[in-house]
Amino acid sequence: MSQDGVGVDLETSLGYLLKEASSALRAAMEEVLRPLGMTITHYSCLELLSQRPGLSNSELARGTFVTRQSMNVLLQTLEREGDVTRPAEAPVGKVLPTRLTARGRRRLERASAAVRSVELRMLSGLTEPDQAAARRILRSMIGSLRGDVPTESAGEVS
Q1: 139 vs 117: CA distance, rounded Å
Q2: Residue 103's closest CA among 118, 77, 120, 81?
């Protein structure tokens, strides 16, 4: 608690702990991705395209938590490096659907293994039931902050 008794107790603040965990996770991911020549946004973009081929610049930007302008710059770089491909003209409207190339899939495979090792290290002190509870709790927090209608199981913790 702050000296004047007003403020947030950093020792018990879930928001502060989440930010600290996010910062530690980001640093660990950057550490394993840097030798592969990738940033977290680069990796996240390739992972999204692997799971949802054909996403637009805007959809990728939302999914990687960056601006459309930043995503456009990244996509130009990824296209130039041969990791993704986009049509010269939009098949419909203005959207240029992006797809992974074989090179992009190979790079993603290495990056995914590196990121998975970080996640396993992060979860190493938790049992499977604890991991499931953590996922449930985090989804509930996200839903509450976004104003989503809670589901019956969102508040339950085993």
Answers
A1: 22
A2: 81
pLDDT of residue 63 exceeding 80: yes
CA 30 to chain centre: 12
Question: 44-83 in b/e burial notation, b at 16+ Cβ within 10 A?
Answer: bbbbbbeeeeebbbebbbebbebeeeebbebbeebbeeeb
Q: Could you tell me where the beta strands, DSSP code E, fall in the chain?
A: 84-85, 99-100
**pTM for the whole structure:** 0.81
In this prediction, residues 49-77 reach a mean pLDDT of 94
d(CA 36, CA 34): 5
Average pLDDT taken over every residue of the chain: 89
